[in-house]
Fold this protein.
Amino acid sequence: MSKNRNPFLCPSDISFKSWPANNKAMPETPPFGTLTAERYFLEVLGNLQRCDLPDQLKNSPFLKCIVIGNGGVLRNRNLGEKINSYDVVIRLNKGPVIGYENDVGNKTTFRFCYPESFFNDRSQHDVNTTIVFIPFKSVDLRWLKEVLLKKKVSLRGFWKKPPLNLIYKNNQIRILNPSIVQRAAFKLLNLPKTVPWLKPPQYPTTGIIAISMAFTMCDVVHIAGFKYDAKNPNSTLHYYGKEIMSSMNKMVYHDVRAEQLLLNDLRSSNRIFDLTGNF
């Protein structure tokens, strides 16, 4: 993909597909579980005001971007001022800013979320942030439509209760183009394209998907906060909170080891630079 290409889904990008007859494997095209969900995409997009890049990025001749992971390695590193100096700062899920400015900065260009991870802390609200919504299943699109229209929200189909309303305005929300997720899953991580029907699928983490998007639109990609101490189950998982590493080791939908190997390869080949050191 060429640099500065719009990474967000627009109505003109959608083409309708059919579910293969007698199919016993998940479709190879993400978002996972959303094949034949085109009408849901169109309904949600019809309720969003924009599907393009923010105005300040549209005509930028050069973009230096950083993706901020939520790893505990960010604690006491005093990288906040450095992080704020990037043209584009991408944050993940519920990683807070206020109260952690010295270590993680306070600039947020994009924040990646899906319903169960949606960042909805009013005390942390930033009017300059664009939410990048990642739908992994059809009910994710249903949820977004319902909260946008301020309708009664169905909680059926979620592994964790999502918010019932949003702190962000309509023009702050974009839907990530599924091709970005596809690239993260199959080009970067080489995940299997088909999964036995009863076996849980493996997804890229939000962080890997964010890096995939950065590759499509940025001239330089740096990262910070992606290092985890997998050998120490009692080590701090995030730069915030008290959750420990053992909770990540229980995840069945992500291959943390494979992602760390990928990040090491990207670093070694100089495709990314890591502000927080070796993996």
Summary: The longest strand covers residues 64-68. The first helix runs from residue 38 to 45. The chain has a mean pLDDT of 87. The radius of gyration is 18 Å.
